[in-house]
Design brief:
The complex is a heterodimer of chains A (about 475) and B (about 475). Chain A is about 25% helix and about 20% strand. Chain A is an alpha/beta fold and about 475 residues long. In chain A, a hairpin with a 2-residue loop joins strand 15 and strand 16. In chain A, helix 8 crosses helix 9. Chain A is globular, with a radius of gyration of 22 Å. Chain B contains 13 helices and 16 strands. In chain B, a hairpin with a 7-residue loop joins strand 8 and strand 9. Classes of the chains: A alpha/beta (about 475), B alpha/beta (about 475). Chains A and B meet through helix 2 and helix 9 of A and helix 2, helix 10 and helix 13 of B.
Amino acid sequence: MSNKLWLIAPALAAAAAGCAASAPPPRTAAASAPATPPKTYSRDPYPSTYRAYPGVLTAIVGGTVFDGEGRRIENGTVILADGVVRAVGGPETPVPEGATRIDARGKWVTPGVIDIHSHLGDYPSPQVEAHQDGNEATGPVRPEVWAEHSVWPQDPGFTRALMNGGVTSLEILPGSANLFGGRSVVLKNVPARTVQQMKFPGAPYGLKMACGENPKRVYGSRNQSPATRMGNIAVDRQTWARAAEYKRKWDKYERDGGEMPARDIAMDTLRGVLAGEILVQNHCYRADEMAIVMDMAKEFGYKVSAFHHAVEAYKIADLLKANGVCAAMWADWWGFKMEAYDAVDENIPLVHNAGACAIVHSDDPNGIQRLYQEAGKAQAAGRRIGINVPDEVVWTWLSWNPAKALGIGDRTGSLRAGKMADVVLWNGNPLSVYTRPERVWIDGALMYDANDPKRRPVTDFELGQPGEGDVK
Amino acid sequence: MKASLLKGAGALLLSLLAGSVSAQTIAITGGRVALGDGSEPIDGGTVVIRDGRIVAAGRGVAVPAGAQVVDATGKWVTPGIVAGFSRIGLVEVDAVDAANDVEARNSPFSAAIDVSTAINPRAQPIAVNRAGGVTRAIVAPGTARSIFAGQGAVIDLGADMNPITRARAFQFIEFGEEGTRNAGGSRAAANLLFRNALREARDLGLRGPIAGPGGQRTATANDQRDLPLEDLPNNRLLSASTTRPTDVLLTRFDAAALVPVLQGRQLLMVHVERASDILQTLALKKEFPSLRLVLVGAAEGWTVAKEIAAAGVPVIASALTDLPNTFEQLASTESNVGRMRAAGVRVSIGMIDDNEARQVRLARQYAGNLVAVARVPGSTGLSWGQALEAITSAPAEAVGMGGEIGSLRPGRRADVVVWDNDPLENGSAAQLVLIDGIQQPLTTHQTKLRDRYRTPTEGALPKAYDR
């Protein structure tokens, strides 16, 4: 896997975190910047107000630990303190005095699952018409919409993803009706009153793009462009050309000052992509289309972080590896539309085996509750054709790889000292159908405990309804 | 071990291809055998098959002389999976209208629609799910402009051109939110539509005796006694001289199709989720006492489980629905199936509105999850044996075919799967699939693509030459 993308991510994350009021100086500004930088627009006008909930010094002792980066520790010790992982090691790891000791013998400890593709909050339950907030299908180019402005924090799906799925972070994307669907947002999976309270601090934004059937169907059926796959790419290229021009004007202004160029909220997003600040998350099923998109990205000087729903990734796993693009995939979804007809159950292990970056994703409020099982199915499908991926390496598909593809790999996605204490204790092998989360910590705070009904979140929507507070 | 099984399976295939199917005796030995009747698995069991039927299964079963032996040591042996509610065989690709026969939005007909004429045994979803160990399926049409979807079938997933196990096994109706839409916008309208339709059927029936066989039917392959009503000889209902009132809503065919429902000769399968809709459905029997009901979905069933159990109505439930996706599913929980079963309801697993045209192979994972649920404090799940039952004999029983399919009890059709591991676990796969005792191919479009792209780069020639 190429490291190009990941190298820029931590710097971006740090930059985005500190720019609530004004943007950081552009990278090209160093040499000729005027003494007072020109007034510019905020890159973070809806800043995260997420605060970790209180946790206690915790030692999870005796479990099988997958560190998320591919290592396995038997009889492991994981120490959580002050919201972060303080130590990860074998039985010799000292347990600090005063730590709450959790007996994990016979259980497994992993970093929390990260779903790179979710619509929770923007297509919430109940899925009534009034809640259909995921597709601004009023034009194929809508990079001005931001998924976070649709997210309903009271979506019960968040709590199911936490309690049944062990999901600690997730990316909420706009839908795929549009070529440019809008900005995505990365959330910590904590119940909250406002979306800002869920926003992953410092996570770079994503741009949702879509290839293939959906945009051409939605607009073709209205006798608008795009009506074909070639129309998809034509509109994409025209848009990127405009974005490049916009970026030139704004780069010049932010470097040299002068008259402020006209502001275009849509183009702000695309400028961010071209500047490497916003990561492209590209819905794309077919191998041939992914290859075209990778060329288009080179043509306009941006990078695709991951192809989502990459059903045919196995056909071009070598190209994905060479371009350093991840493939986010289902284990066995297929056939619901023409571009999903060539799915194979071995897609994920084949991509992994080729040395490319494989991710298991859901795109579904039910699937997100069982991503760990989906990984288990994919692993088994690989094993049957002689691709043996150990359990602890399989876990990279669920946490480390998606974290990197979201630009948050320096903060979460693996159990490393100093990283966020986003941790799941499982009651069995977490690739098994028979396993469920027993406890889930987010930034060291215990947000779910299967043995404690008081650690089971209930959304506003479900209060006073049949089944309130029930196991789900 | 694996080699010996494959060798055995290979020999089996060869001999069956030689055409001596009817005389075959097959013994699957040494495996962990689960009967599918709710009992727990038996180690070192033997399954004996003769002439396409189960002769015996369990421990201490003798291998008949001359039987072809499949060594399943280290493997699991179960009845084939029965898809409890599906649209398998009606669809090639969901989003391609021309390859999707689930519903007929512009048809003048509803209850008379008969899916048995639309099943394509060569559809890829049949092959993919057969390779996933699914051997039979309950197939229902979808509703379009009426709450009556039409008549569903029980099919096998065999690689031949005779997929129908029982045609017209049930009438399927939508009676919750979907039915409300179909009926014009309210539950009250759906209720009235139903009652009117059955009265129109009754009025037809009063004009003369229903032709054809009465009473409970027994299933046989392609049962010709199950002819569509309009095709039955001497059917006076549909003769030109039979007059009907002018103020009817149903076509003659649709009204005629509801006569066997009204008379209790054909099951009425009803999709409902909300507790109050479940109770309203059960209450239909007050007005139409002969109705033989089966509930589908029933997300809130656990809240009225006693009433369902008392009515003796089986439920083909969605296993893992746990979100308030709709206002009729507010009380949904993964404990629904376990709680209903604990209350005495006959529950099986189906997949309504859940990729049921392509992914019924996921029934195993769903069942396994209900075993997982049993370990979560405060939840109610199933034992392993109960979970397997919920995807084998229980759905068969729900449609009155437990005597024919769904278990390894003697006399049942020999739908048998040998798995490389625990079939409810994510990592397992079917290695040998028998339907009516006949070994089935497990290759699909998918497996061929997989083999072609095992290495993604081209060799001396383009990929199109690799096969």
